[in-house]
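Example complex used in Figure S2.
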Amino acid sequence: MKIAVLLKRVPDLVEDLVVDASGKALDADEVKLTLNEFDDHALEEALLLKESVGASVAAIALEGEDVDKMLFTALAKGADQAIKVTGVAPVERNLQLARVFAKVVEEGGYDLLLTGVQATDDRDGQVGAMVAALLERPFVSVVTSVLPEGEGVKILKEYAGGVMAEFEVSLPSVLGIQAARQAPRYAPVSKVRQVQQDSTLETVDCGAAEGMPGMSVVVMTPPERGEGAQMLDSVEEVIEVLASKGVI
Amino acid sequence: MTQDILVVAEHLKGSFEDTTFELLAVARKVAAQTGGRIVVALIGGEPSMCSELGAAGKVVNVTGEAVVNFNPESHGAALDAVFEAVKPRMTMVGYTSMGMDLASTLAVKKEIPHAAFCVEVDVSGTINAVSQLYGGKMNVTSDLGEGPCIVSMLPGTASPDDGRVSGNPPVEQIEVPETDGKVRFSRLIEAESGDVDITAKEVLVAVGRGIGGKDDIEVAEELAEALDAAVAGSRPLIDAGWLPKSRQVGKSGLKVAPKVYIALGISGAPEHLEGMKSSGTIIAINTDKNAPIFAVAHYGLNEDLFDVCEELTEAINER
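Predicted assembly (567 residues):
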């Protein structure tokens, strides 16, 4: 089985987010990017599949700041191949990214594409779903387990309230991973450094993505708080609230 | 293109999910502005369910063996067929597990814009949709033009009661189109029941990523014990294996509404808020003063959760 994992970087929400002068986008100078946590789960699930059935795993990402380190980390965790996509104009929409991924993936001949179920900046929908539609492959999202089954895979999809559905999915297909069967593994810095010395990233040059149905940003603002929370100053005040609600 | 608003109904085991009525509530507001008709796509389901769809001017019921249970492939083909029959100006889908399998793929196939994470739609001019991005830290308004377009609405953004109207809308039945059968439904698996039913507790102490590590959950457990409460958690903690699935609050977990919900180190991503915002009193403790949780909490404390937990536990035990 030949697996590709699509990785995307998103703003780190631990940092404060600032809107730029245009009022329509985040201030790029203030944003710290980090791997989309769901993509990390997708990579983990791919590595678990590799360990159980001997699949090959390729990690694919668009070039950018710190992307080399992210891809070397994927190799250190056990991916067989890391591909950096270059030559693409700045991507503002997931649909652009999906078109790029679809092109790279189609040429690579992968059986199974895994990517995070969503990212916090998915304004125009999820990358995985779009790649699937562009390649006309089946797609299932909110997946929490992928196991080999016959010629395809057996997956679990999560609904609300913890109810799950089991499906069998033929290959080639695309899955949006909600959570891997185990927490994503950690690659020690020393190992990432070692990999960085011993291996190279492959690069694929990809042209611009065409065909975007119009969807411009009108404005970006932090949400209005409305009344919001009444801020307390001390633990004593929390005690008073709990007492007033009759729970202590 | 017609002026119709197509609402994709969602149901499981013969009952509509609240999302369906929330979408209808938003659709009614839009319809009042545009004069468009509301058409519901009921894919699978029983004809008797249509009596709950009084808000609709018409129901298109897709029937057939392939759509008895939700199947991303068959439901996708079914929605495509309904879309072609109705030619709606706007298609509304829940930003849910089922909706996420349908909306983005339909948008690509039809080459029309799609806004996800939506909390608001405005059609007074061109179609504008507000998406709640970056874990609820930014609202982004997109201009989707005149339509056709798709909006995926976050659950919990409208009151389902405003969309729940009984009636007998005209129903058109169509047969589900044939597919290649690449996705095959096997079975439903019920939620694991845990040692504690967090939906039945009067007080919940919920922990989020701010807790740091698995061993740190102990401080929350001590506080919960003092309050005769249970410990619940947000998704990252459950995914990390720090708490069992039965303790998860939010989109893919449980919906809770205790008398008091204490949120410790929970930032308040939309997926979490969906599961707890109906709680009687929400007390949020977080060092990030910009955390979205403070927008829905009734009370907030901008302090380190470990200090607060210890002090609280001690004070309560002394009472």
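The mean pLDDT of chain B is 95. Residues 198-318 of chain B form a domain with the Rossmann fold fold (CATH 3.40.50.1220).
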